Amino acid sequence: MERERLTKREVVTELNGAQVKPLSNNTFEVNYSNGNRAIRYHHTDIITYHSNGDIILNTNGWLTNTTKERFGFLKGYRIIQDNKVWYIAKSPNGSWPSKGTWIPFKDGMTIHPDGTIEGASEDPKVLLKLDKSITKYIEGYIKALFDGKINKPGSGDCWGCLMKDVTTGKTVMGNDHLLSHFQERYYVPSLLMNAIEVFPVSIIAKQTIGFYLKYHDQDCSMFQEITKSQVKSSLRRYLRRQLGMAA
Q1: If we measure between CA atoms, which residue out of 34, 73, 30 comes closest to residue 51?
Q2: Residues 40 and 46 sit within 8 Å (Cβ to Cβ)
Q3: Tens digit of each residue's pLDDT (9 = 90 or more) over 165-220
Q4: pLDDT digit string (tens) for 147-163?
Q5: Going by DSSP bridges, is the β-strand pair 27-31/55-57 parallel, antiparallel, or unpaired?
Q6: How far apart are CA 211 and CA 145, in angstroms?
Q7: What DSSP character marks residue 139?
Q8: In this structure, how many other beta carbons lie within 10 angstroms of the beta carbon of residue 167?
Q9: What pTM, to 2 d.p., does this model score?
Q10: C-alpha span between 228 and 232 (Å, rounded)
Q11: Is 51 helix (H, G, I), strand (E, B) or coil?
Q12: Fewer CB within 10 A of the end CB, N or C, for the chain?
């Protein structure tokens, strides 16, 4: 999803006057009145240095290459991506850490002053197995969509996919319901709407989706192959993001 370029004034306004210093594109150092300091990328404090010495890491679900680059401001550690999974490891003097020291990354994890890390993600093997489930689900979703077996979103949809916070636009019931969709092969209409809102597709693809979801009757079947590719990419990136994987 293309995120807007922020100015220092916009960040200061958003944070009610906190001391803000630009570091890089859409990246700022923020000094809060409570003594905490943060590296903020877009609207997320990705690295927060607490006054007690703890360091909290958080991407707000944006496990992207650019976000990973911004973690370069975290001195003494390195964020590494390997086979769709993020890891964190100590990197003294900027050296490349051995793979045996890598710890699976998870939003909200804490680096304590003694160097111990709390709140790591699941075993990478579990995440990779989950990624295979995502791929299989998307294949079934796309087939069902273009076979005309999915209707437009409505009140009968999964509430976990349908209900959103009016302020943030995020779904409000966590992500466990997504795992049940994979098992039940439940192709939720509003899930696709959520995906293309976060990871947009072209106007042609939107029109084609609208045709197959029965929003209109203008035949767009000639754009099916183009739309398949874009829907597949959008769904994959969205589901990986929702489930804590690199998008």
Answers
A1: 34
A2: yes
A3: 655 556 766 778 899 999 999 999 999 999 999 899 999 999 999 999 999 999 99
A4: 999 999 988 898 888 88
A5: unpaired
A6: 10
A7: H
A8: 6
A9: 0.79
A10: 6
A11: coil
A12: N
